[in-house]
Write a structure and sequence with these properties.
The structure is a single chain. The chain is an alpha/beta fold and 359 residues long. It has eleven helices and ten strands. It has helices at residues 5-17, 43-50, 118-146, 148-157, 186-189, 194-210, 222-237, 262-265, 272-277, 283-294, 318-329, and strands spanning 30-37, 63-70, 79-86, 107-114, 179-184, 214-217, 254-255, 337-338, 345-348, 355-358. A hairpin with an 8-residue loop joins β2 (63-70) and β3. The two termini are 40 Å apart.
Length: 359
């Protein structure tokens, strides 16, 4: 008979593992998903809907964390999904390295792009994906020296969505982690001129296919959010993703990774003479130049987050604010800790004035 609290806990775990009666043990799956993308692009709303939480979304100040659980079958431990969300668009992109530290086989990226702001689209996408890719590649390089088998498995996994007999197998460059690109605010985008919609849609199709990513357009519509949830649940809980495809530019796009092709996408949306005047070293660079000819990009400076995160009113706490004011009066401040009913811990770093919020 169990006599200690530890014995009781072990007995309870064994009881749950054998609940199915066939002696099969159930392992808990843990996966992590990092949401990045356009400022005010709807990342929080998408996460809440995926977790079936009826909450009013609040602005994400910097880097926030939450989690969800889901049972595969009855009477077995629930799988866990860790959701990280980077706020501020591209202004705090260096924080991407915070969640992606101890590298695992179960990390995915969701890039949310605001379709209603096409002039910010390419800059946001390029900046966030470059920073993420650079950081992941550094980790893979280090991992390759200590555990080459695991590093090789991770590198090979990104090709799983593309069959070896796919005509574009030698022409794409898959992202080092599973990637989903979400075009948000489709309801506004749908009111654009048809030619503008076509250029944006074709460009995102090319980028997604080139990086081996899934692509979906969404809005606050329940039907579109449901399709988005399918892709997110595949990343977070390993649930089978839909194999249905929608490539009609007059409708919301839904293209799971590996189900598109360069032949179906077609050439960049420009005349042959215009393309001949452009100088590009890679297909991706060519598409970028064609896209930016129609939608001149905003500079990265214009996309910087202008507000001091430490001054955000939603995290105000009188005692801490008074102490910080006193610190500032004497020429600087040290690390401060705050607790509220919604934020478990707030850490303000004096070097970068960045803030991490854990829900």
């Amino acid at each position: 008979m169990p006599s200690t609290l530890w014995d009781l806990a072990v007995a309870e775990v064994e009881k749950r593992e054998n609940a199915e009666g066939d002696g099969e043990s159930a392992e808990v799956s843990e996966k992590s998903v990092l949401f990045v993308g356009s400022k005010n692009g709807g990342k929080t709303t998408i996460i809440l809907r995926c977790l079936d939480r009826e909450e009013i979304p609040k602005p994400t100040l910097a880097l926030e964390y939450t989690f969800g659980r889901r049972a595969r079958r009855h009477n077995i431990p629930k799988d866990i999904a860790h959701f990280w969300e980077l706020g501020g668009g591209t202004s705090l992109q260096e924080l991407i390295r915070v969640p992606i530290t101890n590298f695992s086989l179960a990390f995915s990226i969701v890039l949310v792009l605001d379709l209603s702001k096409p002039n910010e689209l390419w800059t946001t996408m390029e900046s966030l994906l470059q920073v993420t890719r650079s950081h992941v590649n550094k980790i893979l390089t280090k991992l390759g020296k200590t555990n080459p088998e695991v590093a090789a498995e991770i590198k090979q996994r990104v090709w799983n969505n593309l069959q070896k007999d796919h005509p574009d197998y030698e022409l794409v460059d898959p992202f080092p982690l599973p990637l989903v690109i979400i075009g948000s605010k489709y309801d506004i985008f749908h009111e654009f001129d048809s030619e503008m919609r076509k250029i944006i849609s074709k460009t995102l199709r090319f980028v997604s296919h080139y990086y081996g990513a899934s692509l979906v357009f969404t809005s606050k519509s329940e039907a579109l959010l449901l399709k988005t949830r399918i892709l997110i649940n595949n990343l977070a809980f390993g649930i089978d993703k839909s194999k249905s495809v929608s490539v009609d530019h007059s409708k919301p796009l839904f293209i799971p990774a590996g189900l598109d092709s360069l032949h179906q996408i077609g050439p960049p949306p420009a005349s042959d003479s215009d393309i001949g005047k452009l100088h590009a070293n890679t297909p991706l660079e060519l598409w970028k130049k064609v896209f930016e000819k129609t939608f001149p990009p905003k500079s990265s400076y214009d996309l910087q987050y202008p507000k001091d995160p430490a001054q955000d009113s939603q995290y105000a706490e009188y005692e801490v604010d008074v102490m910080r004011a006193q610190k500032n009066e004497v020429g600087g401040y040290s690390v401060c800790y705050s607790r509220t009913t919604t934020i478990a811990e707030v850490i303000i770093g004096y070097n970068h004035s960045t803030l991490f919020a854990f829900k």
